[in-house]
Amino acid sequence: MPEVTGPLIVGISTRALFDLREEHSVFEEQGVEAYAALQREREQVVLPKGTGFDVVDRLLGLNPAEGPPLVQVVLISRNSPDLSLRAFHSIAEYGLGIKHGSFVSGRPAGPLVQAWSVDLFLSNEEGDVRMAADAGTAAARLHPPPERAALAPEDEVRIAFDGDAVLFDAASDEIYKAHGLDAFLAHERANAHVPMNRGPFGHFLRKLAAVRGQVMRDDGSSRVRLALVTARNAPAHERVVLTFREWGTPFDEAHFVGHHIKAPFVEAFGAHIFFDDQEKHVLGARGVAPAGHVPGPHAPDELIVPAAK
Known about the structure:
By secondary structure, the chain is α/β, with parallel strands linked by helices.
């Protein structure tokens, strides 16, 4: 694989970084003028933290005190430049190292993801997330923040992923959907030593793994902790482990949960964010961790569980 160069770049919308549910309800019910007036009135009032705040804060905390940054964060917002003042005032008050942003006055923010060379895009806006994903960027639509934050060392960030159609492509899922469980298991056993193709979050994982390797502790652990939480179980687990080995992207934890609910494993891991392409898993996990839905091939009411009971 080619060497990973440059910092990990995260793009995030204003509503994903901060909790703007009250202001957004004014926008939806009273229109843009009332929304703008409210934002100007509260220009010096610090915005509360949103779903993506903690993971962004922790990723930025990986940067060294001197030298090139490992992580950069860019604000990509549908707000107007005039209303950007409150966002950057809040960023300064929280001490976040965010200096760059784009504000497009209501236009779709998706095209700016490519302009900023973003590796991961987080937003509440479905259209922007899909536009970014269609262009090949790892992207997720965030749900409202959980009521309680994960407990973890302050200098550590923990990220949990689903596997198929997120880290890996959806080829194996499609075999399961078209031909059933027995065909899926036979295919995975026969191809156990054939690495899977990278999915929508594959490039992001490569860059995140590069950052992970640069923030190792003396005891051999990393300040970036990664977990896989997948509905696969044995014997389909072997191909997953060997794929990660081939990719050179080590994981700290892997949970092959089959038909078990994913949320308890996400909570036990202490995830600062969890990514899944199936809406039902995201809805289940959002009460215990920040959760993002990755656009994928499955209908919202469809649950794909490629595992025997």
